[in-house]
């Protein structure tokens, strides 16, 4: 029986031929049974007449196109001439199936190309997606190292909306480019149809803020296209341009003192001129009498701190901000460099102010107006800033009005503190003075600090205690705020004036001994309730003996607020104190070193 096997020409290695021969031999054994020698010796060719009649004797015949093998091959011998190996085609000591040749997979995964491996891990034999005929991508190796994996490779496809390979853009994908990156102020950038460049025909040459109308701009800075307030149907005045150049700003129309509308312009300078030829519209409250001035309308483009100054002017200026032609907001004479002026203002977006450049004591000359904003985050606490990120300039929660302490931070814009990490409540008797800020009760503390913020960012002094004693929010909150004044000899209520009350201490008892003027004698204790908030003056002028005068918060001798023996080189006494509306105190008329006599009490109310 003859089995014919045709081997494909793609077997490029003789190792594949050896394996084919082994397969053929196995078929021959199965087909011929006992006719094949089991010892692997030479086969008896006389037992079969089925050898290839076309090439009966040539053992080196080309088998690439086909090979006929008889039941017992006489052409192989002990050494196969086709492979040079020692394996016997008839089942000798070494079978072709036990060949030592190395194929793909046996060492795959060591990142080195061995044997018949095409690649191994990152070892790609210098192959790339490009060498495999693709436009780009990432080439890999198959898991069994038998072939290259091209699934990560791609061919560029202009028009798929994704930038690939050497494409500069693709449809809506502009690769982070725009008209500005192409050197234009604005507009719409478009990708060319071939994805190899950009179409800038829709980019605009106009730039709002450059002082020149371009494109669809209605105006730009001072370029109003010949329009005026009157031509726009407004009262006569100074027409301006909106910040986005899309329309007109009418804030200066109908404003008779206005000379110029500078919109929201920022810079150094934003305007300049000479006041010699100007008129005198507004006269600020600083720098003596004003002279000729120049009035400009400025509109804040955003919330923030703005710095106005005349640094660089040629004469001694003064600078003012007005809300209109009659209401001054602030005035400065020499706050800038030398005799120049400077104002810091916190404005909201769209807030308009009149900026007036004037001269000290009617001086005139060439002027420059600079309007800038501090740069938050530059590490320098500049004009208009109270802090920088990470630098609160030595301030604390306590100094910022939070007696409970905590961590103070710098707020956005550097114009204020971030107090989120601060504790708002302090400690101490609300109705008595102490060295720390704030007091034990938050409601009472808030009421007091609303009247006097220093009570929450400094010591809770006598004035703070006075306010607490008269505040309804502090009634009964604890400490001396719970003490009811019931030790008085007389209740004046809110009576004020010269000689509002009088008497003689000889017949009185000794209730209190004040800390000044030696030991006290008999005294007169008078309750007084402030009829209005403000500064009060208590005196014993007109008394006929050497008096001393003290003020107490309540009946506790330790609640003394102030004490005086001799005032203005006289034996009479006088005390000045700030009181809140409704605040009650005790006024004690006493004598120096135990003296007694006729006394007079005068109470002068706030002016």
Name the features.
32 strands; 607 residues; five-stranded mixed β-sheet; mainly beta; 4 helices
Strand and helix map with partners:
Elements: E1 3-5, H1 14-32, E2 67-69, E3 136-137, E4 140-141, E5 148-149, E6 153-154, E7 186-187, E8 190-191, E9 198-199, E10 203-204, E11 240-241, E12 248-249, E13 260-263, E14 267-274, E15 294-299, E16 304-309, E17 317-322, E18 328-332, E19 342-347, E20 352-359, E21 366-372, E22 409-410, E23 417-418, H2 442-451, H3 454-457, H4 462-470, E24 490-493, E25 497-504, E26 524-529, E27 534-539, E28 547-552, E29 560-564, E30 574-579, E31 584-591, E32 598-604
Parallel strand pairs: 13-15, 24-26
Antiparallel strand pairs: 1-2, 3-6, 4-5, 7-10, 8-9, 11-12, 14-21, 15-20, 16-19, 16-21, 17-18, 17-20, 22-23, 25-32, 26-31, 27-30, 27-32, 28-29, 28-31
Description of the structure:
The protein is mainly beta and 607 residues long. Helix content is 7%, strand content 23%. It contains four helices and 32 strands. The longest helix is centred in the first third of the chain and has 19 residues, at 14-32. The radius of gyration is 52 Å and the shape is elongated.
**Rounded Rg:** 52 Å
Shape, principal axes of CA atoms: elongated
- State which percent range the strand residues make up: 15-25%
Q: How many helices in DSSP terms?
A: 4
Q: Which structural class do the helices and strands define?
A: mainly beta
- State the major sheet: 5 strands, mixed
Low-pLDDT regions: 1-103
